[in-house]
Request: fold
Amino acid sequence: MNIADMMIHVHPELDIEARTGLERDLMGRVGVDCAEFTHNEHPHALMVKYDPDAVEGMEILQMVRKLDPVASMVGL
Reply:
């Protein structure tokens, strides 16, 4: 299994309930190992660890964009 990291920025005013739900939804996706916001430092930054053989980064970004249409992927 390969592991890749991706950071996604969402709107900073996205509330805690929406962020928590997004983490849960992404964690339920096959191929996603971990999805979490850094709630204290950068509450708009979502870090996702995933298996690129099982799910593409753009698929994950599209899941996030269902909640925040202007979410953007940040290079690491």
In short: The chain has one domain: 4-74.
